[in-house]
Design goal:
The protein is an alpha/beta fold and 150 residues long. It has helices at residues 12-24, 43-56, 70-76, 90-100, 114-126, 133-149, and strands at 2-7, 28-31, 61-66, 84-86, 104-108. Helix 1 links the parallel strand 1 (2-7) and strand 2 (28-31). Bound molecules: D-ribose. D-ribose (RB5) binds at residues 8, 10, 43, 66-68, 70-71.
């Protein structure tokens, strides 16, 4: 799968291991930075790059890492077509895709450990939207909201 990843200073130390893991599983990963620990960088900048890659089709899904995952998800959800959520457990990571068609996962490196993060990300990329009529109906309602209130 083509994936986009980005992290601010709160998440940059976790990013390298996640990229390595994904590449070792055969995924194509585009790294949108940060390239080094820069305490003054801002999570919206990385959220914008990853969201842009997903919206354009350059990547099928995105992964954002900040300190808590919260800022990254708030920023990413400002972009039409992005369905981002903070997930620190495997159930949410796969069910968010299967039921809600989540296309960006957000992690908080100050909350989740490296091993748990790896498992969560693996469940996220391994999941597929079920397309079940009830989930499609709900997704379409979200899309309508985006049109009306976005
Ligand atoms: C940055 O210090 C921190 O606020 C950011 O990484 C993130 O946790 C925001 O939600």
């Amino acid at each position: 799968m083509k994936l986009a990843i980005g992290a601010d200073h709160g998440g940059v130390n976790l990013k390298g291991g996640i990229i390595e893991l994904l590449k070792s599983k055969g995924h194509e990963v585009t790294d949108f930075g940060a390239c080094r620990l820069e305490p003054e960088d801002d999570y919206p900048d990385f959220a914008a790059r990853v969201a842009g890659a997903v919206r354009s089709g350059q990547a099928e899904r995105g992964i954002l890492i900040c300190g808590s995952g919260v800022g990254a998800s708030v920023a990413a959800n400002k972009f039409k077509g992005i369905r981002a959520a903070v997930c620190h457990d495997c159930f949410s990571a796969h069910q968010g895709v299967e039921d809600d068609d989540m296309n960006v996962i957000c992690l908080g490196a100050r909350i989740i450990g490296e091993e748990a993060a790896r498992e969560v990300v693996e469940r996220f990329v391994g999941a597929r939207f079920s397309g079940a009529p009830r989930h499609l109906r709900r997704l379409n309602k979200v899309r309508e909201m985006e049109k009306e209130f976005g």
